[in-house]
């Protein structure tokens, strides 16, 4: 280790060429250095390795036994170093074998991952994709530790330490089953409050959300009779009961079991975005994945 601290890359490059050329003049030409500079390098190398390394011979210089021992390990080490510092190669999805991990709620799965999935499988058939549960409070730590490669979350609650790219802006609509007697037309505020509602509470067990806050600001309250942790559960409930729910528009768009009407009050929407750590920001494969998800929404 002490010898390694005394070396620099230029000395090792000089030794590598000298072990090929066995000639200071030719080595200097290949290295684009002066002959005296190469001689100085050789003197320094002899001191570090405590060996002559190259001795005068009838046809140039001949390597010592120590130099012969160094030849292959040195070449392998320099080649490995060259690979390590080489620019990142272009990403070829057709040949890729990556395993990606995306942290998302069921909403992110349905509105971002699902629309992109067919294209991902077609373009990168050798890759794998794992969806893991999103834990907003742990996003920074998990991103930096590689627990996930990409997270799908609303911008408002996301930590500023991560890179972000907005995907779309979402708004809420009132949804219920096809043929729901209370949704033949857009309800009044009084009719809206009289309906029995499902609320999606990510924290679990909550009965007050953004809709209830908007109602409270105008002195009203609705009947929330069921709280569930997932949007997909809420939609299943709507399809089989007379309960209604304020749901993100993209989640219910095109669902043949549900009908949608405008709510009688304005409920703030949100911006959906993807988030990632600095460690993968410039990675060509990661950039490609982000581009595919962005193109799908």
UniProtKB/TrEMBL annotation:
UniProt keyword terms in alphabetical order: DNA-binding, Transcription, Transcription regulation
Domain HTH lysR-type: 7-64
Cited PROSITE patterns: HTH_LYSR (PS50931)
InterPro entries: LysR-type_TF (IPR050389), LysR_HTH_N (IPR000847), LysR_subst-bd (IPR005119), WH-like_DNA-bd_sf (IPR036388), WH_DNA-bd_sf (IPR036390)
GO molecular function (one): DNA-binding transcription factor activity
Domain of life of the organism encoding this protein: Bacteria
PANTHER family (alphabetical): HTH-TYPE TRANSCRIPTIONAL REGULATOR LEUO-RELATED, TRANSCRIPTIONAL REGULATORY PROTEIN
Family: Belongs to the LysR transcriptional regulatory family.
Protein name in the entry: LysR family transcriptional regulator
Taxonomic source organism: Pseudomonas hamedanensis
